Automatic annotation (TrEMBL):
Residue stretches making up the Homing endonuclease LAGLIDADG domain: 21-114, 157-245
This protein's name: Homing endonuclease LAGLIDADG domain-containing protein
Claim: Nucleotide-binding is one of the keywords in the record: no
GO cellular component: mitochondrion
A Pfam family of this chain: LAGLIDADG_1
Residue ranges that the Swiss-Prot or TrEMBL entry lists as coiled coil: none
GO molecular function: endonuclease activity
Alphabetic keyword roster: Mitochondrion
The keyword Ribosomal protein belongs to this UniProt entry's keyword annotation: no
Source superkingdom: Eukaryota
InterPro entries given in the database record: Homing_endonucl, LAGLIDADG_dom, LAGLIDADG_Endonuclease
Gene that encodes it: orf3
């Protein structure tokens, strides 16, 4: 569960922040709720399937960044932050690096407005009735090429992979990598470009989906996740990735 420290130039706190944002955008939620129509409540949550690896990862993030309380409930490990001071720390992380998914950026714009202006319940309800449309006019999807230019893209992508990626070894011995997101066409297009995946980003009524079986592309993917210049996978996907990489290398070593 440790980051690759062979590159001594890595700023540990910075890469954990970038990883955290990818994880948050993949499996998190930025919430403004109300208590009995009297006061507003602010929470940031990340919910993952409980495994020992995911629990260790969440504990590591919490310790490194000084944010998020951990709860184990009904087969999930849940990171929750609702403390007003620590919420400011998370907001500072978001403002420093930036969110990438359009719907998360819109969530955060609403959250930040409500938090910073200490609005009343009646204004909150009014904005909700408007479906927050006036927040959204200036928040449009980033172009995929712009995403690739962002300095935090690599570590963000690794955190996002912990949430939404899959390294699969099928029963017939074939290997594949896939990643999906409900509202993330430009992000998946940027991932496609990062790994030089020839396949198109597909869509269903529920989500966007990208998958590849190509051996050369899978090697590109392994090179990325094993690079000493990035934080590396930290949770259950690290366990999955290690088995995937070993199996892929064994397959490559077999005589043709």
């Amino acid at each position: 569960m440790k980051i690759n420290k062979s590159n001594k130039s890595i700023n540990t706190e910075k890469v954990y922040e970038e990883f955290f944002l990818g994880l948050l955008e993949g499996d998190g939620s930025i919430q403004v709720n109300h208590w009995k129509k009297r006061s507003l409540q602010f929470r940031i949550i990340i919910k993952l399937k409980y495994t020992s690896a995911n629990y260790a990862m969440c504990a590591q993030i919490s310790q490194q960044l000084g944010i998020m309380n951990l709860h184990i409930r009904r087969g999930f490990v849940i990171m929750v932050e609702d403390h007003r001071v620590r919420l400011l720390r998370i907001m500072a992380i978001i403002d420093r690096h930036g969110l990438l998914l359009t719907h998360r950026r819109r969530q955060y714009a609403f959250f930040k407005y409500c938090y910073n202006n200490q609005i009343t319940y009646s204004e909150y309800a009014h904005i909700k009735d408007l479906k927050k449309s006036w927040f959204f006019n200036s928040i449009n999807a980033y172009d995929s090429d712009l995403l690739l230019q962002l300095s935090h893209w690599p570590n963000w992508l690794i955190g996002f992979t912990e949430a939404e990626g899959c390294f699969c070894i099928r029963s017939n011995g074939s290997h594949s990598f896939s990643i999906s997101q409900k509202e993330g066409y430009e992000v998946l297009t940027a991932i496609k470009k990062t790994f030089k995946i020839p396949n198109k980003v597909r869509s269903t009524s529920r989500l966007y989906f990208l998958e590849t079986y190509a051996g050369g592309v899978l090697q590109n993917i392994c090179n990325f996740y094993s690079s000493p210049h990035v934080i590396g996978l930290l949770g259950e996907k690290q366990v999955q990735y290690k088995a995937f990489k070993v199996s892929l290398e064994k397959k490559k070593a077999l005589p043709i």
